[in-house]
Amino acid sequence: MIKIExxxxxxxxxxxxxxxxxxxxxxxxxxxxxxxxxxxSTLASVLAGREEYxxxxxxxxxxxxxxxxxxxxxxxxxxxxLAFQYPVEIPGVSNINFLKTAINExxxxxxxxxxxxxxxxxxxxxxxxxxxxxxxLANRSVNEGFSGGEKKRNEIxxxxxxxxxxxxxxxxxxxxxxxxxxxxxxxxxxxxxxENASIVITHYQRLLDYIVPDYVHVLYQGKIVKTGGKELxxxxxxxxxxxIKEESATLNV
Amino acid sequence: MWRKFFxxxxxxxxxxxxxxxxxxxxxxxxxxxxxxxxxxxxKGLNEDIIRLISSKKNEPEWMLxxxxxxxxxxxxxEEPEWAHLNYLKPDFQDLHYYAAPxxxxxxxxxxxxxPELLATFEKLGISLDEQKRLTGVAVDxxxxxxxxxxxxxxxxxxxxIIFCSFGEAVQEHPELVRKHLGTVVxxxxxxxxxxxxxxxxxxxxxxxxxxxRCPMELSTYFRINEAxxxxxxxxxxxxxxxxxxxxxxxxxxxxxxxNQLHAAVVELIAMDNAEIKYSTIQNxxxxxSEGIGGIYNFVTKxxxxxxxxxxxxxxxxxxxxxxxxxxxxxxKGDNSIGEFYSVAVTANHQQAxxxxxxxxxxxNTKSTIISKGISAGKSNNSYRGxxxxxxxxxxxxxxxxxxSLLMGNQCGAHTFPYIEVNNQTAKxxxxxxxxxxxxxxxxxxxxxxxxxxxxxxxxxxxxxxEVLNQLPMEFAVEAQKLLEISLEGSVG
Lengths: 253, 492
Prior knowledge:
The complex is a heterodimer.
Chain A: E1 2-11, E2 14-24, E3 29-33, H1 40-48, E4 54-62, E5 65-66, H2 72-78, E6 80-83, E7 90-94, H3 95-109, H4 117-130, E8 141-142, H5 148-162, E9 166-170, H6 178-191, E10 197-201, H7 207-210, E11 215-220, E12 223-228, H8 230-239, H9 242-252
Parallel strand pairs in A: 3-10, 3-11, 6-9, 9-10
Antiparallel strand pairs in A: 1-2, 1-4, 4-5, 7-8, 11-12
Helix pairs in contact in A: 4-5, 5-6
Chain B: H1 17-25, H2 47-56, H3 61-75, H4 115-124, H5 128-135, H6 145-158, E1 162-165, H7 166-172, H8 174-180, H9 191-199, E2 202-208, E3 218-219, E4 233-239, E5 244-249, E6 261-262, E7 265-270, E8 275-282, E9 296-305, E10 310-317, E11 322-325, E12 328-331, E13 337-346, E14 351-354, E15 357-360, E16 366-375, E17 380-389, E18 397-406, E19 412-421, E20 427-436, H10 439-447, H11 452-463, H12 465-468, H13 473-487
Parallel strand pairs in B: 2-4, 3-5, 4-7, 5-8, 6-9, 7-9, 8-10, 9-11, 9-12, 10-13, 11-14, 12-15, 13-16, 14-17, 15-17, 16-18, 17-19, 18-20
Antiparallel strand pairs in B: 1-2
């Protein structure tokens, strides 16, 4: 589905990603872990198309297309979804209106007319019950006055509505209590199919108790330095990142 | 020649379905433009010109005296310079003050019309026939304004409502005009009001009798033949005791005009327990992207509230090169309410110094000011507001919120609030925010699949929601479209 090769990216002249490679197939869940400042959120931002980041080297191919050539909105319409670490508030714009605009704009580009109100509302109903946000969402402004947990649940709600091919969850577990974590994870698991894939970026292992990854990658100093199965996450939880850092230092010498 | 995008309202309500039916099915009978030959007074302003205007309009002696007095007052006044505006002052002796509605030369087809104008029509969803009418193209079938106006007037007449041109009111209802004209905006109020009082050529007049609730929104659309009212418009709306009226001024359909300076005066009078809702959409020609051309809009709008009455101003302004405008309320009667909801957009090189004036005189008077400024390009957008609580205005209350939204980094937003409180029991709140349209917000929308323009439009509409919600439904929809067009490509 997506193939990232030797990706180098910098912001304000600082190189953050230094030759990252990663391949993800449909139906897979990949977890990306790593210490603070290793480049996890940068990877999410670069894939989503934030303009502040400069790509200096490497390639990203998404379903046969050069992702780096596409605008952020084109990537979104092609099926790349980012669940934001810090979801943005848009005062005065209802959640429903926001999603309707997004969905219908994508449909328009595909040359199909807007979604019927009936279909839209039934989707809303289904998606909101998935993240237990029933009834609260419709008329509230996007993320405005939402608690931390509600914001993250709202991200998953939007994911359910937009049905992306590749979901990137950027520290979706940060700031969540255990109940919210369970709800969010349940949403992600329910949405998983053989046709889509997820990148779960997290700092802690606990999210991976709920969302079971097929692969765990450790990102350190802008590169993936270790890849393993879900047991790698447990090892990291137990031993911390120091041994990875040491290993990586030895490799680099 | 200056070009103005002038609004003609094209609004119908559910209760007027039969009218719509009539509009869409009837044949064009009498021609859109009047047959009066073009006649224009020579340039310059003096007593003779004023006498000419008055005689052309066949006005009674008292009206002429009113004008001449205003001219004397105006001559002693100086053009104000306190506004945060920078423009070349008009040469008042280099303007025409009277031009009778003239026959426009009909174009043969839309191909002869400025494509930019047509593109705007397209975006506003204006029908082809109407596009032709607005641009002066000869058409076979056109909305029959005469028959619409007639049936509309009949409906209103049954209720005793008077809605006509100002000139007509001077002829038909001189006692009402004479009694109220200048009582809210006195001749000496300010430079432009004095000028208007001397030379106004026409405008609108509306009277709602005691206890009558006007069943439809009154809009100038129904007086389409008075479209060429020119640069000095005069509006007087009187809502008698316990009555209600919603008045719409402007429309999103742009139309050319050759006048550069506009100095209108609008006076509203809400008698005891009456309510007036006055909504404006203004989309006059703002000049080109280099700041060349455009309308100078110097307007005085004020309402007088008697006991228990309410006046509500709502405006969405995206046009004009220079705007100087402070719709306000004098809350004279006890328990009266004044409201002001405004969205003012400036793009390119536009400048706006606008806000509201709320003067509390009666006890338990309340006022609300919600002002949303949006600046883009190299424009300057200033909020200027006065809240005054007089000595006797016990328990006067005001809430003011003025927000500024900046797009890009070459525009300016400024806030000049003036608050005068002379009564200890008063409560005045002022909230102000200035924010830049968030790159984060735009990116968030883009990440969900929206184009940048769609994202900006969505964010801006959210920002303006409190004001747009005050507009009558259909007007609000058009206001949204207008915002979209005005801000297209403003970021990035």
